[in-house]
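Schema walk-through. Below, the input block comes first and the output block second. Nothing else is stored per chain. Lengths vary across the set, and this one has 423 residues.
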Amino acid sequence: MSELIESANGASTDVRLPVGVQCADVDRAPHNSRLRYIDALRAIAALLVVWLHVGESYVQLDPVGANGHWLYAFAQSIDVGRIGVVAFFLISGFVIPFSIRADRPAPISTFAIKRFLRIYPAYWLSLPLGVLTTYWLWGRHFSVGDFLVNLTLLQDFFGVQAAQGLYWTLLVELVFYVLCIGLLLTRSLHDMRRVCALAIAFGLVHALAMIAHWLGRPLMSSTTAFWCLNLSIMLCGTLYRTCVIEGRARRDPWLRVGFGGLLAFYLAVYPIATTWAVGFERNAAISYALGLLLFIAGTSGVRIATRVTDWLGQISYSVYLFHPVIFQPLLWWLLQQPTGSWWRTRHLGIYLLVNMLLTIAFASVVYRFVEKPCIDLGHRYSRKRAARKADRHVVVPVATQPAVATAAGGIGSRRKGDGGPST
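--- output ---
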């Protein structure tokens, strides 16, 4: 999720990842109205990221490659980590814009505070642990200044190294939040034609930038070009919910054509064109298409809803944030063992399983004692703001003492519907 993702950075996402951002991550609905299949997608996305990162790190333990290297070779060939990140971004687009309601009290400040409490507390906990396990444990330098800049989650903007490489996705999540606020202020957030036009514009900028790059005449950095792609993908999540899940595109032919063309571009045109240009191996366009297919399958095809995936989805932001904190120290210890020893020659699948289980256990603790209290705090704040605004709109009766009614129905009289306590 960052947002690599919540946490989906994030997400922080973490798409959490951030992607806050869930990769990242997304605004939580009450338990009885949760989209359980979205939690299942979060769980799958987080575990895909863990698979790639653990695989590419632990494959060095066995240079001969006789013990399960195919698990990493497959994960690398289609970049399952990127597939997970794309799924986190789509989930953010599917949920975040619908958590901002202009008809609610102080929608922008409430949204900002709830998102802040969703992303930053767990992120701040991961920072010192990330510095310890990713830098200091390996004898790499990470200064106090770097740490202080990382506290803002804006290290990429300042050109400062990140405590963990996956934080970039969380920054993408933050930018998406700002974009949603901008769309709300311009009354465009729930105007799907405008959202579709913006998604197409971001996609076109990315495509033109990559074509220019392949021709040797770059218009912008690859990083900037992929920022445009990521924001376009997140808006696709918004459009998919509105057009497909809610069926609003049936009533709007222009929206149907626009979003249909966008899906066709990302699922077919772009992957085919880039495969012709650069080949299949580690082709980002292929990974984005597969991430979109995973999202479509999980929302419109096989909707998974089990207690296990509910739970894994809830803790997915911490799984995303803290999996390097788990696998890095274990890898460091294993590398201290003699080459060819029993500890270093187990099947790669064993290392994957052990790291996933340890990460899930640690993430559960973080969710219980850090994430959930902060999420609850955000919801309490939202309810208090709503109550205060409602109090300000209560009509106060003109007279609080009984008064003599007059034939003309003067000040002292009160008729039904005049706004007194009886109405």
